[in-house]
């Protein structure tokens, strides 16, 4: 292995160690965290979660990737099926897609009414503020990729039989409806970025860079002091707090 | 049976019929309702619920009287265990005590911290607005009794072996801490009475009157038009919408 | 009120008191009970439950009347949605209809396959033995009415608008398919009557008698010693342990 | 990369592809599977699960690693909290430790009574037969390692800060109580190995070999015909169906 590779491995190990120490501290204090991972199809959510959970405790970490709602659930309060997976003391829950479905895939594909979608954006800041004020740490990542990269990944997915289970009927329209997804993303980020629950945007075209940046951000946010202070700030070209100006200034893929 | 008794029975039957027709309409449209019943010990919550559910469908009506939280639940988001009982399409859920525990019994007896209690009152208007805006009908009743009546009922409870299961360790302090409960009630009503989710106060010293008034109110709120329009307004001395002035003007027991 | 009425009221009160004392004892020891109520349409299950729960604790008693399964539930293990309602320490759970749907209404109306129904009857003895050996008290009542009485009740139901919510689409065929229901009942009772979990049959044509007999049986089965010993044995013409000979000997309605 | 490495990678890819095709077939037919992974501390359960789920669908696959029961759960039916995670149509659920806790860790460490443990072993064959006869595929793996290998892994765990979250208080006694765990394992395997739900034993001292053998076994058991038929039988020195003679003949570590 080259020295360069050695160095990268050492850096990755240090980040993983930070996650381990963070979870140890959380288990000791009872701190709870919800991590939301959103992004277009093929943005790298699954892989990011595998990296995040590499060394975490299987008993204190839960990854939630909900199937489509049952007929009964469709008649319930929209938030109900998400709330039932929220963390108990000391737990980290990672949502692989989340309540933000209503502001993304549902908007673009008409799976709910415009009124429901508008209601969602009206509700989300208050809902998330409640979570945060109850002491739950809520960290929301938007994984952003550009159109060509998504195209490459979706093609690779279709050509690689090992990735067959990642293919969804919606993949087919991800490129065709690219602009609609962009508009939905912009409205979602603008409407749900709040002081209590800000969005962290991640340029995810380069997977490893993105994952390192995400871990760095997590450690700085929820790590115990000695961990948080030693982690260097993620590269601002890779990971940055959303701000309205980011819409249209080229930092988010169009 | 005297004519007077006949008349009363006929009136009660008409009210019960209204509830039946309301639930039929809800089942047809998928409308959902949450009814919250709060009040001091012995205010008549259990009996009211028996009257309300007398002729309702056992499959579309659920009465929720949660036991004390488990150790795991105590580490979860406060609202989580309530949310898991919310109604599906066409259902009525009646909470026999509810999330308002945090603003009542917990305040008076120190079962949670003042910070948690303050947070609760800060959160509840937004939370309930979300419910209401999602299309759930939320109706909150405060059953109010005066101090002597509570004393009589708690004594009767202690003397009647059939009521032994209604006795809780907190009964013993209900009279001693009367003023603390009054203060908690006032703060709770004032802090959680909103245009979206107003409190309806019910003078419950006379049980039958109170129950009739409650049904009338429900029918006018959630009954189909033809039911709602025919029900006479509850006597305002028995049932009235909370308003801040009610604190101290003698309408709520002190 | 006549002396006779006074006597009956006193007897009913004594039975209710027995239930109260039973639940007090269960709460103290952590004992758990499941009560299953089965019977044809209009056999009196709802009313029996109201009588049983008249004075029981709303927090330690749960009545479970499940709505039809969701699409997701239909793909799950048949027993799963029932198991999720089983009692915690000190609780009584009353099933208003139960897993026995598969041996009754589903058989007669073809809601499941004959193979599934046969599997159910093969499984149920082992399943219930597990429950019983885990320390849960399981008491199963079959409320039996004769054909004319069902006819009267279903007619009364159709004519009484207060009972509108009790009407189900299946009522219409209850009389026409009387014999098929009889056959299903016989196969169910014969196939699931075991030493661990016997069926108790109740002649329910006379509602009050039936309810008193049911309470007596419960008290003798799950009451604390001093309660159980004082309760007289239910009239064997009203309540009797199922035995195969009961099929065809006239004790069960044909 | 050497040719040998290339070959191994190709073989691994073929196995992973088999898993993908298996899940595709299951999603199409609605087939359900429960995979139980048991074994001593450090036997390789977590790593095996990561390999199994490498390319599976996050929405149709659930990994269940339950935390210790809550106080409320401890009062419930033992099986209840496991049943609530059983698969819906088309799902694979992998239990990382399971109901078999009662026959292993609880026996050795006295976390339940001998009567409860005996009851468990009496119940488990019937319970699992019910699952299997309902159409759920149940596959149970015992990952077996020898004492020296466990010692090495537990030491490595203690020395590698990245593995800190894998350390449990019970690790400390795993070696000291080796023989008690052996006896518990033998009793568990002998008592719960049935025609419906046999145990598959895996020599897991060599991790990669073990994982390949496990995948091969799964594919032959639950793969669609064309997958199952092409997979070679796992090496019988690595993976073999339990039989009573295996206790004491040297195939299972002592």
From TrEMBL, chains A, B, C, D:
<dbReference type="GO" id="GO:0008976">
    <property type="term" value="F:polyphosphate kinase activity"/>
</dbReference>
<dbReference type="InterPro" id="IPR027417">
    <property type="entry name" value="P-loop_NTPase"/>
</dbReference>
<comment type="subunit">
    <text>Homotetramer.</text>
</comment>
<dbReference type="InterPro" id="IPR016898">
    <property type="entry name" value="Polyphosphate_phosphotransfera"/>
</dbReference>
<protein>
    <recommendedName>
        <fullName>ADP/GDP-polyphosphate phosphotransferase</fullName>
        <ecNumber>2.7.4.-</ecNumber>
    </recommendedName>
</protein>
<dbReference type="Pfam" id="PF03976">
    <property type="entry name" value="PPK2"/>
</dbReference>
<keyword id="KW-0418">Kinase</keyword>
<dbReference type="GO" id="GO:0006793">
    <property type="term" value="P:phosphorus metabolic process"/>
</dbReference>
<comment type="similarity">
    <text>Belongs to the polyphosphate kinase 2 (PPK2) family. Class I subfamily.</text>
</comment>
<feature type="domain" description="Polyphosphate kinase-2-related">
    <location>
        <begin position="3"/>
        <end position="227"/>
    </location>
</feature>
<dbReference type="InterPro" id="IPR022486">
    <property type="entry name" value="PPK2_PA0141"/>
</dbReference>
<dbReference type="InterPro" id="IPR022488">
    <property type="entry name" value="PPK2-related"/>
</dbReference>
<keyword id="KW-0808">Transferase</keyword>
<comment type="function">
    <text>Uses inorganic polyphosphate (polyP) as a donor to convert GDP to GTP or ADP to ATP.</text>
</comment>
């Amino acid at each position: 292995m080259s020295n360069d590779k050695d160095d990268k491995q050492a850096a990755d190990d240090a980040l993983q160690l930070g996650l381990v120490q963070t979870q140890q501290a959380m288990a000791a204090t009872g701190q709870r965290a919800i991590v939301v991972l959103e992004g277009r199809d093929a943005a790298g959510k699954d892989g990011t979660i595998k990296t995040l959970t590499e060394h975490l405790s299987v008993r204190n970490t839960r990854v939630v990737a909900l199937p489509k709602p049952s007929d009964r659930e469709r008649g319930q309060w929209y938030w109900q099926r998400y709330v039932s997976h929220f963390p108990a003391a000391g737990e980290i829950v990672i949502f692989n897609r989340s309540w933000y479905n209503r502001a993304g895939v549902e908007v673009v594909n008409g799976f709910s009414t415009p009124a429901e979608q508008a209601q969602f954006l009206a509700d989300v800041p208050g809902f998330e503020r409640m979570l945060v004020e109850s002491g739950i740490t809520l960290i929301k990542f938007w994984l952003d990729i550009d159109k060509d990269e998504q195209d490459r990944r979706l093609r690779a997915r279709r050509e690689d039989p090992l990735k067959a289970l990642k293919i969804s009927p919606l993949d087919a329209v991800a490129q065709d409806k690219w602009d609609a997804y962009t508009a939905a993303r912009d409205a979602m980020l603008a409407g749900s970025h709040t002081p209590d629950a800000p969005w962290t945007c991640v340029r995810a075209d380069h997977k490893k860079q993105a994952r390192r940046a995400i871990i760095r951000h997590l450690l700085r946010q929820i790590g115990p002091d000695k961990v948080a202070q030693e982690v260097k700030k993620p590269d601002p070209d890779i990971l940055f707090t959303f701000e309205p100006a980011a819409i249209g200034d080229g930092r988010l893929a169009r």
